[in-house]
Amino acid sequence: MRKRYGDNLWDLLRILAAGAWSILVGLYITGINLIRPGVCERYPRRDHRPDYQPRPGYRGDFALLSDPERPGGLRCIACLQCQNICPDQCIHITPEGKGKDRHPVQFRIDTGLCQFCWLCVEVCPVAAITMTPDYETATDQPQKLIRDLDTLRERGRNIPEPQRVEPVGCVADGGA
Amino acid sequence: MTWDPTCVTEELVVNMGPQHPSTHGVLRLILRLDGERVLEVRPDIGFLHSSLEKIAERLDYRQYLPYTDRYDYLCAMANELAYVRAVESLLGVEPTPRCQWIRVMMAEMNRIASHLVYYGALGMDTGATTVFLYCFRERERILQLFEDASGQRLLYHYFRIGGLRNDLPPGFCEGLRSFLDEFPRRVAEYDALLTRNRIFRSRTEGVGYLSPEAALSYGVTGPTLRGSGVSYDLRRAAPYYVYPELEFDVPTRPEGDVMARHLVRQEEMLQSVHLLHQCLDRLPPGEINVKVPRKLKPDPGEIYVRIESPRGELGVYLISDGSEKPYRLHWRAPSFHNLQAYPEMCQGAYVADLVAILGSLDIILGDVDR
Ligand code: SF4
Ligand code: SF4
Question: Domain-by-domain residue ranges, chain A?
Fold first, then answer.
C-alpha cells in the first residue's frame, strides 16, 4: 500500500510546503509564458503570419501545367504513368490522338480518395502535373472534390514553371 | 485510513472506452473493479484496424511507402525508415552517406516531436493541461521544418527507396539549429512545471510498477523497457546507418514506475538534441539518391529489419517472391507489445491511476491495430 500522506504532523507540513512551492513555480512559468509572444493562430484571420504560404513543393491541390503549342493546351502526353502509379487509383485519364498529338480529353482526379503522396508528380516524364500550395480545399459535397480537366487546366494557368522542389544544397555549417 | 484486504465488496465490471478521452485513440478497457481498486484489466483492441499489412500485398514496393506513414502517425519518419531499410536491404542498395545522415536527423527530430506529444498527453491525463499547450508549441516548430522539407506536416512520405524526396530546403539547418538552441531551456521549464510538481509526483511515483523480468518476458521495448532498468536501445544494440559514429547516452531508470518512464523520455529528448547537433555539424555534402531500377524486383528471399522508433523496437518482416509486390509484409509494432504488459502494471492500482499508466506506455492505437 502506497503512502499518500505523511506519518505525522511534521511530514504533513513538509508535503504541504512542497505542494505550495510547486504551485508557485507553476504560476511563475505560466506567468513568463503570458508575456512571451503568442503563437496561436485564429484560423481564417491568421494574426501572426497573415501572408503565410507553404513553400513550393507543398502537397496541396492539383494543377495541370499548360503548353499552348500542344493539342489541348497542356503539357500532358497522356502516358498514363500517373494513373498507374497512384496507390489509390484516383486518377482517370481518357487519352486521344497518336504519337506527338496524344493528349488527354478527360482527366479526373478524385481528391477525396487521394492521399497526397506526390507519387504522380514524381513519376510524370514531362512534369505536366503538379501540386500547388493551395490547401484550402474543404467543401460540403463529395462531388466537388473531383477535379476535372477544365478545373485542372484553369488552376495550372498561373504557374509558370513546374513547381518542382529545387535540390538546394544544405551542408554542415562548418563545411561549404 | 488503511485498506483491509479481507474486506470483500461486490465486484463491478466496467467498460472504459472505446471513446474515453484518455485512451489515446480507440481502446476499450474492460475493468473488474472492487470499489476504486482494479482487480483485472483486459484491453480490447482492434477498433482502428486498417489492414495495412494486406494492402502491401496488392501494391508495389514504391506505392506502399506512403501507407507506412499512416499507422503510427506520430513517428511517420521512423516507419518510413524501417520500411525503406527493409526494401533496400532486399535489393542490396546502400544509400549515400548524405542520405543516411539526413535520415538519421529526421528520425531524431521525429523522436522529439513524438515524445512531446507523449509529454503533453501524460500531463493532460494527470490533470495538468498547461504543459500540453507548451509541448505543442515546440512541436509545431519541428512540424514546420518537416513541412518545408517534405511538403506535409504529419504524413511526410519523405524517404524514397534509394534516397529522399528532395534535399534539405534552404534555411532548414538554420531553423533546426535555432530550435535546438532553445529547446533544452524549454525542457527545463516542463521539468519544473510538470515533473517536479508535487501533485504529478504523487500521481506517478510508485504507480504502475513493471519489473525488468516481466518487461522482458512481455517483449516490451523502448523507453518503457528502459524505465524498468534494462539498458536496451537498438541504436546501440544493433546500430544502423551512422549511429555508431555518434555519441549519445541511453538513459535508464531502475524504478520501473510511471515516473521512471517519464524521466527516461524526458532525458531522451535532450539526447536527441545532442544527436542532432552532431548531425548538423557533420552533415556531409554530396548526392542524396542512388539509382534504383524503375521496376523494383528484389530476388526471392525474406528479411527482418528493426529500428528504434520513439516507442521501441519497430520491425519489418518482408518476404519477396521475386515479383513487383511484396509477398508478405509484417510489422512488429512496439505499441502492440508494450500494451501486453499493461494488465501486469495495473495490479492493485486505482481507477484514476489507469490513465496515468496508459499515458506512460505511450501507445498509438493505429500502431497497435495496424
Ligand atoms: S498524390 Fe498520390 S494518391 Fe493523390 S493522385 Fe497523386 S499518386 Fe494518387
Ligand atoms: S504522367 Fe504526366 S504526362 Fe503522363 S498522363 Fe500523367 S500527367 Fe500526363
Answer: 62-155
